[in-house]
Amino acid sequence: MRSIFRRSSDRMPRGFELRTVEVPAGAERIYEEAEWRDSIVVIARGEIELECLGGSRLRLERGTMLWLVGLPLRALHNIGVEAALLLAVSRR
Questions:
Q1: What domain range includes position 45?
Q2: The pTM is what?
Q3: Whole-angstrom Cα distance, residue 79 to residue 47?
């Protein structure tokens, strides 16, 4: 299986950019839809819980690929013991 981490000498294909978002262990990140616009997101390390506006939660683990636009979310939570790392790939 190929690693989803890229060496610093690698480049994204022309027209795309990679952004990393780290959520510390035990922390939450308030959901702002604009932050994720036009991005495919992969959980590269750890686990994330998505908290919906109604209070329900969905736990996602390493390797999950998702789209975080147009969802009724309040926050992203890291309930794990290590920092979670999200990779967001989008068009420039």
A1: 21-91
A2: 0.83
A3: 7
Place of tokens 């992969």: 42
Residue 6 covered by a domain = no
Overall number of domains in the chain: 1
CATH number at residue 54: 2.60.120.10
User: What is the Cα–Cα distance from 63 to 36, expressed in whole angstroms?
Assistant: 18
Q: Name the 3-class secondary structure at 25.
A: coil
81's tokens = 């013991």
- Local structure of 35: helix, strand or coil: helix
Does 75 reside within a domain?
yes
Instruction: Measure CA 74 to chain center.
Output: 14
Compute φ and ψ for 49, nearest 5 degrees: -110, 130
- Mean pLDDT (10-residue bins), the chain, 92 residues: 45 86 97 95 97 97 96 96 96 84
Residues listed for the chain: 92
> In the structure encoding, which two tokens stand for residue 85, read together?
């790392």
